[in-house]
Amino acid sequence: MDISYILNELGEEREHYFNAIAPPIIQTSNFKFNTVEEFRNALSDEFQGNLYSRGFNPTIDILRKKLAALDGAEDALVFGSGIAAISIPVLSLLAQGDEVVCVENPYSWTIKLFNDLLPKFGVKTTFVNGSDTSAIENAITLKTKLIYLESPNTFSFEVQDLEAIAKFAKAKGIITMIDNSYCSPLYQQPIKYGIDLVAQSATKYLAGHSDVVAGVVTGKKELIKKIFEKEYMNIGASVAPQNAWLLLRSLRTLPIRLERITANANKVIAYLQQHPKVEKVLHPFSANNQQLALAKKQMKACGGLFSMVLKDTSLEKIESFCNNLKHILMAVSWGGYESLIIPACAGISKADFDSNNPRHVLIRIYIGLEEPEYIIDDLEQALNTI
Fold first, then answer.
1. What distance in Å separates the CA atoms of residue 78 and residue 76, rounded to the nearest whole number?
2. What is the rounded CA–CA span in Å between residue 42 and residue 36?
3. What's the whole-number mean pLDDT along residues 268-272?
4. 364 beta partners
5. What is 235-295 written as a DSSP string?
6. Beta bridge partners of 125
């Protein structure tokens, strides 16, 4: 499908709602029936019928159609948060005694899922260097039921060979799942490489205005329905119709926002790479990235997220630089119109900080929709203070 059709027309049966250009918010918890037979039919299949908005809602259904099409998937489920879009499918796929192979250093709440929650249910996780495909393959046992990927990683930006991993996983009957939040469907479509389930934090680029928390998972209809009928419905983590509508609003401008964000980030990266107080900049399309060819094979572009390392990696200098920024905001997440910064040291106690640990000294930057010169000037004045 053409992306303009997906974003502006797919699922929007305007003749059903007064030919309004914008789809309506169907702000209802439940739906009425004229006969017992109609009611019986709806109760027998909540996946695709109006009964109760925890399961199916017309506004959310429009969004599901668009998100599935953007990923090249058969269907989608939308959740109240990105981590719900990861946790609920994982819980649906696994049973006591199963094992998971997961890439090292995924999103922090994904780590908590695999390290803290799943062991309560007798599920074991092995973390491996995902950049080495053989390390993933060698970690597989007869009990492995899921390979979990995050490509690129959203702090240090390692990528995994999606096609190779999907191929050997399918041969062994193992489900593959990826967090594709860094790229969005516009810059990477893991399903075309054979990945089974694609999760995203819709809070990021898909929403794009820092006013929605949501998540999405896409894949084959059979698998999506399996997730829906048990864990999705039982845990009740569906997105609210108002947030679904805000996501529909945001999708209209997704291509142009990503285009501008990427262009802005490229200008800022070029500035930082030549700055005498910056040791290096990390992002998938960096000329110094040993995985550059793979990144360019799988991804169309990089968006606005990258990390940098100062030449002086002392805690004092990192904190001074970050504290002196005037316009780049210190906050979690990314994908909105505002530029953001997160120093990795913020998540580490001062006593545990190690300036020689390459992950401790990372400073993650997201470039938004401001004029790039405005952001560069802010970076310049902050760098001048250290």
1. 7
2. 10
3. 98
4. 307, 342
5. HT-BPPHHHHHHHHHHHTTHHHHHHHHHHHHHHHHHHHHT-TTEEEEE-TT-TT-TTHHHH
6. 100
Which distant-in-sequence residues (6+ apart) come within 8 Å of 330 by Cβ? 322, 340, 341, 342, 346
Per-residue pLDDT tens digits for 197-252: 999 999 999 999 999 999 999 999 999 999 999 999 999 999 999 999 999 999 99
In percent, the amount of the chain with pLDDT more than 90 equals: 99
| Assigned token pair, 137 | 């393959």
pLDDT of residue 33: 97
Distance CA 215, CA 84 (A): 7
Asked if residue 48 has pLDDT above 90, the reply is no
The one-letter code for the residue type at 270 is A
Token pair recorded at residue 42: 């709806």
Average pLDDT (321-336) is 98
Strands (E), 45-132: 75-79, 99-103, 124-128
Contacts 24+ apart (CB under 8 A), 112-117: 113/83, 113/86, 113/87, 114/148, 117/87
* CA 223/CA 200 separation, integer angstroms: 17
- Phi and psi angles of residue 57, each rounded to the nearest 5 degrees, phi first: -145, 135
Question: Which tens digits make up the pLDDT trace of 168-188?
Answer: 999 999 999 999 999 999 999
